[in-house]
Amino acid sequence: MPRRHIRVTGAPGAALRDALDRLRTELGVPLAFPLGVLTEAERAARAPALPPYDATDIPFLTVDPPGATDLDQALHLSRRGTGYRVRYAIADVGAFVVPGGPVDEEAHRRVTTLYFPDGKLPLHPAVLSEGAASLLPGRDRPAALWTVDLDADGRTLAVDLRRALVRSRTRLDHAEAQRRIDDGTAEEPLGLLATVGRLRETLEAERGGISLQVPEQEIVERNHGYEPTYRAQLPAEAWNAQLSLLTGMAAADLMLASGTGILRTLPPAPDGAVGRLRRTAHALRIDWPHHVSYAALVRSLDPHRPAHAAFLQECTTLLRGAGYTVFRDGRLPDITTHSAVAAPYTHCTAPLRRLADRYTTELCLAAVAGEPPPEGVLAALDALPKEMAEGGRRANAVERACVDLVEAALLKDRVGEVFEGCVVDVEDHPPTHRPSGRPTTGTVQLESPAVVGRLDGDPLPLGERLRVRLTEADPARRAVRFALA
What we know:
By secondary structure, this protein is an alpha+beta fold. It is about 35% helix and about 25% strand. Helix 6 crosses helix 7. The longest helix is centred in the C-terminal third of the chain and has 28 residues, at about 385-410.
């Protein structure tokens, strides 16, 4: 999982756009699609493989970030006796992509959609990802339709999956969805998102799972310029994420039962990593009694509080060992669970933006139908973990570079100024020749603007609030550095 998310609201200035263009060239990320890929994508957009099952009478809706057009998921929630029925429609990329064709080969080269502050480099051509395959409102679209029946406590009773033609009625962003739920104007398919989401959060806590509510870093337009801020996740975003987790867990169970699949796995965190987090919590003055589990502590934190936000950022270090695990022919892997989910889990709800999801969907469709997996899927399966790992490394490199570049660009005219901040990390092994014998390099999180940078000083009091002076802000080197004031 990436350490920080960042996006720019409004149109970035010319200097920032130019710097981002240079960054894309430097990182060697795939830019324009080859002509052959665009040609095949346009052909597929005109004539997708349409499913025989018609579910266009179900009034689906989508809940996504503002301005999003690559809509992977649409939802419809309803009551079923004392329980609930969750319908989750996932964009059916397999209805458009020919195995081994130009679009398929290009997707294997790109692996994931890459996000930059001024736009994205999509996994599939826009005619598909933002057009014919996207679950846009008022359009009939092929989808993989998950139907999950839950009991009154939100536990799974039954799962069905089939290809279906669906039509979303409404597109909402997270803020509008939250407003409608809060003021009571949400109709049942949306209003139940809070009910089901909270039930699933309770079950997550019972099984020892955890969802990190890491604040998103935003660059917002303000006073004819830009300023970095933090945005905490809305409850509606967390509830929507619970539907994705529910579906990913159901998909993992289907594949495990069929004997062939690909899981998203994460081994338990080593004691040393948890011990480091305990030291960080102590430094940030976060009370963590020894009888309280890591999962219980994280659920008690408020991402609006700077110290808690800093700790949540550090918690993402426990997720760095996540990977993809393939199994086939009934030979199950040694590790089948994701320790943060506390259950078997897979990625299957974002096929427009992530390569592996198309394959897990095809495997689950075959499992439900009692059919063997498609040959094209089996042929690609063994290479997927390495491809996804390489794609993840590239996405993380892009994210780190973008954060560093944007922060440096925004602060380049403020070198010498003094800011209030908090030391959120220090070197674990300080050099012994330093005067204090303690770490002299660490990380500071400013209170305002919302910037995280390297800090030099002796000593560096972890968790302490202090004043720091900006000593370097170089967009060319993507470097931001502070010293004790």
